[in-house]
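Issue: ligand-bound run for nicotinamide-adenine-dinucleotide - logging full I/O for the record.

Environment: standard queue, default settings, no custom constraints.

Inputs:
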Amino acid sequence: MTTRAQAAICRGKDQPFAIQTVELDELRADELRIRIVACGICHTDLAVRDGQLPVPLPVVLGHEGAGIVEAVGAEVTVAKPGDRVVMSFNSCGHCPSCDVDAPTYCYNFFPENWAGTRADGTPTMFADGAAMNANFFGQSAFATHAIAHQRNVVRVPDRAAHLPLEQLAPIGCGLMTGAGAVLRSMKVRAGLPIVVFGTGTVGMAAIMAAKVAGADPIIAVDVNDDRLALARELGATHAFNGKADAPAKIRDLCPTGVGYAFDTTGIKRVIEDAFGLLAPKGVLGIVGASDPADKLVFNESQFMGGGRTVKGILGGDSDVGPFLTELIDLHLAGRFPFERLIGYFDFADIDAAIAASESGQVVKPVLRMAAEG
Ligand SMILES: NC(=O)c1ccc[n+]([C@@H]2O[C@H](COP(=O)([O-])OP(=O)(O)OC[C@H]3O[C@@H](n4cnc5c(N)ncnc54)[C@H](O)[C@@H]3O)[C@@H](O)[C@H]2O)c1
Ligand SMILES: [Zn+2]
Ligand SMILES: [Zn+2]
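Outputs:
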């Protein structure tokens, strides 16, 4: 039996999202049907809309969904009907990366997340009687209901029962990436300096996590002064505007270099400047989506001689269930206060929410699909 839902169809750049009736496919044994309560909007949704990623259009986007489980397939053990859950990216569970709990680097990442269908090519959604591209990050949560998978659903622990799902929704992508980059990918050590370039969702999460890790100083760089002010409130000890020779100021502050530099801007010049700031054994972590034509240039002897590391990072090296639960616990303890980044919008106002994200007015827009109860 198929399930009716309302979903926001993305048809491409400069076209408004259109909310229309769709049907979800029957559940497979390892799938769950989630009634979506809320979903965050991430830059990756907009990159797909603008044709920068190889996801087929039209498509139902949304990959920071939270909701309540309505139904589960026979093999599902991760949650049961009635459970409150958050969702993240999907992975295959049987490749060399998944085998070592590194699913962000799943060899089958594209078919599991970006093909518009299940990995076996079958559609999860239909519109006007035809297959609709969906299963985006194993969820397509810009909708009232979604089909998700055993591997990308995390049950919200009972100790977080009082936290609204609309607040937890964005935890599964940008927040996880920034926090994971610091705590898992770069394994930031207490007492060493870190500089974070770009203070959007990913950079702010990195700053909050750097405070958890005990990095010192924690330096934020952005071109938006309002964001820098918020970064100071969330843990940055210093904040510099990227338009005003930030590298020179960072060198004055840390004459022997920084232990960690984290780039979320994807801008070649910023990344190369960041590399130049590294102390011996320093680590440069890179997450920002960049111009596909860009090539980074580093000095070889500076790279090799200082034992420096340049690290591409996806999803903060998250292992999904355990790490998202750890982040929920940090949030409960007031040490990961990402609610400060969120602005809420009704589902019907998705275009306004996207505009607020693109103008920089709201760091993390979250769409509300329905009340929890
Ligand atoms: N690798 C991953 O797993 C992963 C996951 C999520 C997001 N991303 C990518 O990470 C990037 C950051 O995501 P976000 O949601 O935080 O985006 P965002 O646009 O909210 O943040 C980027 C920030 O960089 C700032 N910036 C622009 N130019 C700058 C400059 N010259 N110097 C310093 N700061 C500058 C902007 O003002 C903005 O605040 C995006 O490219 C996104 O696609 C990657
Ligand atoms: Zn994302
Ligand atoms: Zn895999």
